[in-house]
Amino acid sequence: MEELREILRHHRASHPAMELRDEVKLIYQNEFGGGHLIADPEEGLRRLRQELDGCPGGEEPLFEPVGGGSVRVNLAPASGRVSAETLFRVFYLSSLRVHGTVEGFREKLRLLYELHDKDEVDAFLREYEAAGYPALSHSEAYRGAYAPAYRVIGAEYARFFNVISAVDRFSRFAGPVFIGIDGMCASGKTTLGTMLSEVFEANLFHADDYFLPPEKRTKERFAQPGGNMDRERLTREVFEPINAGRPASTRSFDCGTMEYSDPRQHPTRRVNIVEGSYSLHPELRGFYTLKIAVRTDSETQLRRLAQRGHDYLGSFIARWIPLEEQYIAATDLYGNADMVVDT
Question: Is CATH 3.40.1550.10 correct for 162-342?
Answer without folding.
Answer: no
